[in-house]
Amino acid sequence: MKTIKTDVLVCGGGCAGSAAALASARSGVKTLLIERAGFAGGIITAVGLPYFDGLIDKPTGRFVVRGIALEFLRELGLAKPDAKRIDDLPAHLITKYWGSVNIPNTDEFKLLMDGLIRRHSEHLSVLYHSLVCDVETKGGLITAVIVANKDGLVRIEARQVIDSTGDADVANWAGAPSEKNPEMMPLTMHFRIGNVTPNKEMYPAAKQALVDAHKAGKMPEFYGPGLIFAFAKDEAYIHATRIAGDATDAADLTRCEMQGRQDAWTIFREWKEKVPAFKDSYLISTGPYIGIRDTRRILGVERLTVEDLQTCRRHDDAVATGCWFLDLHPRKTSDKPFTGSAYQPLPYDISYRTLIPQKVGNLLVAGRCHSATHLASSSSRVTVTAMALGEAAGVAAALACETKAEVATLDGRKIREILSRRDAGPFTDAR
Ligand SMILES: Cc1cc2nc3c(=O)[nH]c(=O)nc-3n(C[C@H](O)[C@H](O)[C@H](O)COP(=O)(O)OP(=O)(O)OC[C@H]3O[C@@H](n4cnc5c(N)ncnc54)[C@H](O)[C@@H]3O)c2cc1C
Questions:
Q1: Which residue has a Cα nearest atom 14 of ligand 1?
Q2: pTM to 2 decimals?
Q3: Are 88 and 114 in the same domain?
Q4: How far is Cα 420 from Cα 327, in angstroms, rounded to an integer?
Q5: Residues 326, 407 within the same domain
Q6: Measured from the CB, is residue 13 less than 6 Å from ligand 1?
Q7: How far is the CA of 166 from the centre of ligand 1 (A)?
Q8: Residues 6+ positions from 428 with CB-CB distance below 8 Å
Q9: What is the pLDDT of residues 270-286, one digit of tens each?
Q10: Which terminal residue of the chain, N or C, has fewer Cβ atoms less than 10 Å from its own Cβ?
Q11: pLDDT band at 42 (very low <50, low <70, confident <90, very high)
Q12: How far apart are CA 112 and CA 254, in angstroms?
């Protein structure tokens, strides 16, 4: 089997992994990013989601994350170098009600990531179309990660590994304890419909068409109408599909993907037939992948809880700031996208130790599968928070290589210092 050696291996090039790989390479250590898709960006590019949530503290409008997340917006020409508040961003890309910012073109994010990876090529390389599928361990350390790609099975030996697969695949295979909620949030297939002529009557009519289709047994569950015009005035972006399943089970994930695609086409056909605004429309695309909200989360050496959010518990080793509301999606048909209190916390600390799994010394887990309770992670899972956690993991993995330590034994306060020097937070307290 072919063997590749690197200092830091980042598994999964989504929100967390993209930031982790860049942060590690910037520290001057040899970094390799592995991504199963033919592009980086995760939910943004693989599912088509344009939202940068977790950037803005809704009540005050100030940014609670800067660093690489803000750099992405700058590189896309959407934020000025000194942007610090919601009003420093283009008004048409802001939804003040949610404290949300959306990028105008998700495909451009693929190009941005390719460009940034090339710009860091002295220390960073990437293998797309490569699926992490197993690990080798010895004495509580990962000695190799196995990847399947066009070369066949490839062994990658890394000093430090970052699991940013969203599903804690690497942590799970390495024997680190993790949990899955029995009621995991549903998956959603996003899709886009072109040549729509929007009007006010469209929303109730679109909703009624979904209710009728659901009653007629054409669509098991939905949220609706989940109809947004984020990209163009005549282009609908829809997040109305809702499929309960376990995305860590290959057969169930396949079932969900097929159901999501079928539901997307059902919704499109129902609207085209019954809602005049969609009479001349056409379905542009689904996916490319179904969106996965919720699977494994590691049981790390520290765990973010709802009480931490509610009491704004401070951590000396905070490496990121969260701010999104408790955004828990129901598995069944409902009017609202979320269920529960939708509690809006004040900006809160996320400790470095929520990235450290138990039992594996040279592994960090960043992104939605970091260590948090089910409810707390409904806030910390959003895109920009995931980027901040990824940046922290990248800095930490590089520091571990430089100091010949393992990531699990590093003092999070040192990582915080480096992040602060890079203007990457945490920014829990107002500045
Ligand atoms: C339908 C949906 C809607 C959402 N809406 C919003 C929203 O409006 N705003 C918001 O901020 N957040 C939203 N979220 C949440 C947010 O997008 C995710 O929680 C966030 O992307 C987490 O980042 P991540 O890096 O952990 O995962 P991802 O961005 O999903 O990245 C994981 C990456 O790992 C790769 N990967 C996975 N397994 C492997 C493997 N074995 N080998 C190699 N590569 C692998 C994937 O291809 C992917 O690129 C939504 C999520 C979903 C599913």
A1: 382
A2: 0.98
A3: yes
A4: 28
A5: yes
A6: yes
A7: 6
A8: 64, 312, 314, 318, 321, 347, 348, 349
A9: 999 999 999 999 999 99
A10: C
A11: very high
A12: 30
For ligand 1, whether the C-beta of 322 sits within 6 Å is: no
Answer whether 99 contacts ligand 1 (Cβ < 6 A).
Answer: no
Cα–ligand 1 centroid distance for 45 (angstroms) = 10
Q: At 288, list the tokens.
A: 């490319």
Tell whether the model's pLDDT for residue 430 goes beyond 70.
no
Span from the CA of 379 to the centroid of ligand 1 (angstroms)? 14
* Cα(233) to centroid(ligand 1), Å: 27
Which residue range forms the structural domain that includes residue 214? 191-286
Can you tell me the distance from the alpha carbon of 360 to that of 325, in angstroms, rounded to the nearest whole number? 31
Amino acid at 84: K
Of 286, 312, 342, the one marking the end of a domain is 286
Token code pair at residue 355: 């990235």
Q: Which two tokens stand for residue 116?
A: 């940034």
